[in-house]
């Protein structure tokens, strides 16, 4: 594992960093490590999942806080969420999460190595601040089929544990595919045709997705995010029956009555590489990914 870290550092040393808080050199380093397993990091290949979990843990351990693994068993195999916690232990907490597994046999650069890379960079950036609340940065396993929408999702296991602890949760942010952007007309699709008139046909924005009645946390985050973002931001509040609104880990926090939202490049409504072998690192826009992370970072700093 140590040799892998050295190789990655050498590989990305010529990449110029985005001129913001987020470091695109580090984002690319994380993407290379997460997508570089010998086998796809799906539920069948626990060695690949554990390799990525070890990388995530290693990155978290460079920071000031507590790192733990939430290990659970499905069909006789062990799977793990990796959690980094910082801030006062007894304070209200914010959860920021992203899943590191993939669907079937594909590299999953956008889905969802991009979200995990953003998670790691956010942890690094926010670790330099003393905040009045606790933040749990959680890398989830088993978000993808065949366990999607089941109690075996890593985010279900984590949300359930917070519910059982009666934890005071400010809210949850799911980073779900944050690296794919297109400026051309006709590159953005929608679940309902009239939405194109409101949101446009260019896949050049980041979306903040919530359900109706999401509470004050969602309103505060959206307001902060729109002010902080240097790329276009589109807001969607919709009932769960709109396809895609609950297609990530935030779903499980809703199930337990917590406020949660998703920040996304809109997944399969834009990225034709979704769940395909073509979902590679070469399709991603690291500059705009850095801008997405920057806006989340600034938004969290401004939370009450």
TrEMBL record:
Highest taxon, organism lineage: Bacteria
Residue ranges constituting the Peptidase M28 domain according to the UniProt record: 81-297
Keywords annotated in UniProt: Signal
Signal peptide: 1-19
Pfam families linked to this entry: Peptidase_M28 (PF04389)
Protein name (record): M28 family peptidase
